[in-house]
């Protein structure tokens, strides 16, 4: 089927490996550092960016031929801002505690360079279905890093995952101490740097 052609599969899978938005293109680092102190907000932020990137790509792709070139960035920002507002209100209604943890970072999705980059580089030149796949792929690639970094930071820094204690009390009785540095933003940068190192060592190693 054309919907699942080899080209469309590559559009979806490339952002998950060699063309990863954070690991390959080093985009979206700021929010990756800001919302990964715990796993739950990292998951929610990753899903929010995935949904917004996918649907903004589709909308811009549908109307791309009617957008005057000189105001295309303004139109893209309006579409993204509308979707971000909807997602923000949904979070406040159904996951208020997470929306408080994410604070202003949900609103800053509007200026996320991954999202704006895909609108300009892909959605403006391609049809809706490939644009949707591109948005989902890039969003999931971004979310994957947030989940990895958030899980490591919460586990080592708090001894828990998603608020549930993972490190048993017996370990603390034997002298185990949570690594307080893991809760600091600097450790997120170090962890992202380590993941980028592993990613590039795998995909860009000399043949």
From TrEMBL:
GO terms for biological process: sodium ion transport. It is an enzyme of class 7 (translocase). Keywords: Cell inner membrane, Cell membrane, Ion transport, Membrane, NAD, Oxidoreductase, Sodium, Sodium transport, Translocase, Transmembrane, Transmembrane helix, Transport, Ubiquinone. It is found in: Cell inner membrane; Endomembrane system. It catalyses: a ubiquinone + n Na(+)(in) + NADH + H(+) = a ubiquinol + n Na(+)(out) + NAD(+). One of its GO terms (cellular component) is endomembrane system. It is a multi-pass membrane protein. GO terms for molecular function: oxidoreductase activity, acting on NAD(P)H, quinone or similar compound as acceptor. The chain crosses the membrane at residues 42-63, 75-96, 102-119, 131-152, 182-203. Composed of six subunits; NqrA, NqrB, NqrC, NqrD, NqrE and NqrF. Belongs to the NqrDE/RnfAE family. HAMAP family: NqrD. NQR complex catalyzes the reduction of ubiquinone-1 to ubiquinol by two successive reactions, coupled with the transport of Na(+) ions from the cytoplasm to the periplasm. NqrA to NqrE are probably involved in the second step, the conversion of ubisemiquinone to ubiquinol. This is Na(+)-translocating NADH-quinone reductase subunit D.
